[in-house]
Every structure is written in structure tokens, then in C-alpha cells.
Amino acid sequence: MTVIGQSLAEGAAGIALLHLETGDEYAVLAQLEQAAEGGVTVADNASLYFGAPALAFVLAATDKPHLARARALAAEGTGIVTRRKLEAAHRRIDQRRRPHYAEFDLIRGLTGLGVALRRLGDVDLLRAVLAYLVRLTEPIGPLPGWWCPSGPRRDRPGPPGGHSNHGIAHGITGPLALLALARLDGLHVDDHLGAMMRILRWLDTWQRRTFDGSAWWPPTLDRADLDLGTHTDPGPGRPSWCYGTPGISRTLQLAARALGDPTRQNQAEAAFIRCIDDPARTRLLTDQSLCHGTAGLMATGRRIAADALVPVSVEPLLELHRTTTRPSQAGLLNGRAGADLALVGTATSWDACLLLC
């Protein structure tokens, strides 16, 4: 129970976000007590979605005095985890070895820790994370610095030669989103723009279009794709937050805003609009979850619409969400808490854990 409790994705920590949004203080406290029962980890598996950083993210949304010590301890633990992972990542880069995506991604890596630090207001350590992300984008040989030696799935062998991951949850669009959000906050590090442009040029190169001209991006690329100069998927897949066009479109919109590039912003928003207007794509969403389902699409759409240069209606997404199968589990990423959060709003900016704001 304790292990699950301190998970933002599946446990009490994530469910607490729902109660913070709805203002149910008693339920918040009960979930936080369950999350912290038996202690909170700062071990190597700690991340935005597990352990001290997960609790730090949740606790940063409340200023209740009786939680002050818990906030301080979680923030301290986040700093310990981040510094240790930064040291390991820089050592890996110095040795010209390739990263596993868990080093840099949102769910388990340094991008996610950067999200927690941004929420905590730890600017100095966030700068160190951004500086690492800049180094991550620098090529190692003929391939980009984020090229992973393994495959995108931990439970099966990867393609020969590794892959480039593009999903916002596990791929390079996560670092791009954090770099863009930091720049929009007024925070800059050396070669900040250069790093953003290296990622954008890669995504521009591998952008694909449907028969009617709608833009989409392959979720991953392997060496065979590079050798062929094309991607073998016939068209866009599920329009999910985690790997699909919606999450990538929001990242590109944020990057365009950070760069002051209205042309790129219009293109990103057009890709999202064409995606949600395509019934063949939206019917691929079969549940209400945040990660793979309609809640993630709706949360992403709400943030895109708020910043859009042209009107974007999320009403059809609300109807889609309400008529899709409700998750059986209770958690945030794949459960009912996430499904309900997509309906109740963003007053606490809970969706920062999705890199949407």
C-alpha cells in the first residue's frame, strides 16, 4: 500500500490532486497520509511520479500551515534526487554514452524533476536541469543526443540500433516543453534557444501529413527509419496525450510562443484542430484516462484553446469524454481521478504534471 500510495500515477498522491482541485481538505489530508505512510523514498526510482518529488509536486499546491514540515521535507528530498541524477547524467554525457529515456523523460527522469522544481520555485536547481537538457540535445556522433540505445518498451526487445522517442511522456517533446515553459517564465540558460531549435528542426524533418494535409509525427523512429528516410507507419495513431499529436501539438505551441513565432504556433494549432476533427482518430480513444484516453485529450485541448491564436472549441471533446468508458481503477494517469480532473478545471494547475502549463 505504501509503495502505491506515493505514486502520482497510480496511488494516493495522484488522487490528492483531485481533492485539492475540488477543495475537499479532509480528503486531501487522508490521501497525503496514505501516500506518506511508512516514509517517502528518495532512492533512484524517485521521480515526479514517485516518491519525494511526487509529494513535493502535490504539496506545493497547498499553503496549509500544518503541512509546512511535509512540504519542506518533500522539497529537500526532491533536491537530493535531482542533484544525484544530474551528476549521473553529466557523467554519462562526458563519456559519450547514449541515454535511456528514463534519464530525461517526464515520468521517471530529469524533465519531470524540472517540473517539480518549477512548481517549488527552486530556480537555481531548475537552471541546472535546463543546462542538462541543453547538453542532451547536442549530437553524439551522427545521431541526436537523446537517441536511446534501447526500445520504447521496457517489457520487450527494442529495434536494432535504438530509437528516438517523440512522445511528451517519454520522449524529446517533454524536454522541449520544459525549455519553452521556462523561457516563457523568463528563465534562460546558455544555448537555451539553440537546444530548442535542435529539437524543433528534428521534429520538422520527421513531420508527416495525412492524405488531406493534416500534420502528425511518428511516436518513435529507429535506425531502419533513418536509413529509409521515412517512417513506416501509414498514418497517425491514437490521439493521446502521452504519444499522440495532441501532446506534441501543445509542446510545439508552447515552443512557438516562447520563440515569438506565430507561423509555427498557427501550424501547431492547426495540427491539433485537424486531429480532433477526424472521427477516425478520435474513435481510437476507448477510455476516459489521462494518459491514453479522452481526459488527456480534453486537458490538452483546454490548454491549447486558452493560448490559441484562433478559436479552438473543446465542447466536442467534453461530449466525447462523457460518452467514453470510465476507468476501473482509481489513480491519476490511467484511473478515475484523472478522468474527473479533466472535468473539474485547472485552478491548482494540476496539469503541470502533464507539461501542459
TrEMBL record:
It holds the Pfam family LANC_like. Signal peptide: none annotated. Residues 147-167 are annotated as: Disordered. This is Lanthionine synthetase-like protein.
